[in-house]
Amino acid sequence: MGRSARVIWDDALISYDFGPGHPLAPIRVELTMALARDLGVLDKVEVAGCEPATDAELAMVHERGYIEAVKRVSATGRPDLEAGLGTSDNPAFQGVHEASALIAGASLAAARAVWEGTAEHAVNVAGGLHHAMPALASGFCVYNDPALAIAWLLAQGAGRVAYVDVDVHHGDGVQTVFYDDPRVLTISLHESPRTLFPGTGFPEETGAEGTSVNVALPAGCGDSGWLRAFDAVVPPLLREFRPEILVTQHGCDSHALDPLANLMLSVDGQRTAYAALHRLAHETAGGRWIATGGGGYELVQVVPRAWTHLIAEVAGHPVDPSTPTGQEWRRLVRDRTGEAPPLTMTDGRNPEFHPFSDGYDPADPIDRSVLATRNAVFPLHGLDPMP
């Protein structure tokens, strides 16, 4: 297998657009790709196009009747509330099927490249639509591209696929699709469902043989606590599960500036998580790694920098956090948004954490969340839940 990295991109991916004022604005991926290009990150990878997912491919996860309903909405622009289209979260718009199928096709192209060995790592920053259900649009998501990538891998003969979701919201759609399938380990680190959509993702949701794993973190959790929780749960389970391939979702709405959630991470903390997942892909999955974007609603200060760091990590050429963002990109930001752009690729943080293995603090709400998850699933994997 070669050690190349591939970015799946087509300018038409920004057609996934719910309209003015919607939080999931396509400018976030447009600015991400512009920043990655401006910093030379895209020179370190192969940039490849994609085709829309076919109906047969979409049917690996979604019900045929739902696909037909999305097509009808796509043709007319008229809502179909039974399919979840026409709500404030998922407004109906003409072309919604084509736009959604292209995002799904991009993640399928990433999966195909890594599975067939034409790339070791692949990323689709426009993807990560993890809330879509088999027969329902939900949480800004119409077709569930991470679940489709995993289903495609299973159809090719993969025996064990691991999915790690670091979006601030629970990866409920992916969990639902594979809840009873022990071939797929899903791990989601998210803000507690008591305080955030979609209201699921409790530690007790353990799936088949403990392969559904949920770390529900308290509001206000910052870099050090989040990284402590990640380190306490993700590496031990991936080492025990030994996936053939690792799929990750990188919603950056865990950032302190994100308007829709309540965690307090920095771009630096998020970059640290990307590097950890890269290392784990090599340690546990033979280096085979598929990454997607996800949520992220601070469109200028956070998403472009976070996902440029992600692309650079996938490429194996991380960007130094002190790197300036560049005059051309700053002009683009001002022209397109009227906002003042960030000047460097850092928030000025140096994320550090004390490992959970050093000891459990029952007075710490983060440690209580970690132990709840470890108690729920670690024994099912033959692991000791106590540090």
Automatic annotation (TrEMBL):
Question: What pathway annotation does it carry?
Answer: Ketone degradation; acetoin degradation
The Swiss-Prot or TrEMBL record describes its family as follows: Belongs to the histone deacetylase family.
CDD domains reported in the protein's UniProt record: HDAC_AcuC_like
Q: What Pfam families is this protein classified in?
A: Hist_deacetyl
The UniProt keywords, alphabetically, are: Acetoin catabolism
Please list the GO biological process terms of this entry: acetoin catabolic process; epigenetic regulation of gene expression
What name appears for this protein in its UniProt entry?
Acetoin utilization protein AcuC
Q: What InterPro entries does the record point to?
A: AcuC, HDACs, His_deacetylse_dom, His_deacetylse_dom_sf, Ureohydrolase_dom_sf
Organism expressing this protein natively: Nonomuraea jiangxiensis
